[in-house]
Amino acid sequence: MADLNFNCPQCGQNLTTDESLSGSEIECPSCSKPIEIPSAGDENVDRTEAEPAPPVTAEPEPKKLAVPVHQGGEELLKKSSSHKEEEISGDGKICVKTIKRGECIELGLDKFDEAVNKFLEKLSREQIISVHSLNYSHFDPTTQKYLPDYAALIVYER
After folding, report:
1. 76-87: pLDDT as tens digits
2. How many angstroms separate the first and last alpha carbons of the chain?
3. Are residue 94 and residue 148 in the same domain, yes or no?
4. How many distinct helices (H) and strands (E) make up the chain?
5. 22 in any annotated domain
């Protein structure tokens, strides 16, 4: 099927439509006034053959990117299929939990390790992405000084 290229008679906006729409009335996208689509033989109408649509396949071909390489020629990169999706359990949301040592002191006893272990026991090994130690300072109103402390930052998958 061919395409028709013509100008709106009201505002002069250049329009292209499918030839099968000849004779039908549309609203001009530029001036919003109704116009009738001309036929291929009308004056000031260009008819061009439309490129045939590529055949539809069950699985699309993977995209290839050409990347310049400083040494040697070009290499083609292919997007690899993600195997990570198969490993996700739960809804896959990434979460972060920070456990501060200062908040784990009860009656003068440091229960930081117990708090971290208790939280990690709730997760499966596959859900834990990383565990990081953090050093920070906090203001102690009793001594009026900044005191150093540490914490554990746990990144996990829900």
Report:
1. 555 555 444 444
2. 52
3. yes
4. 2, 12
5. yes
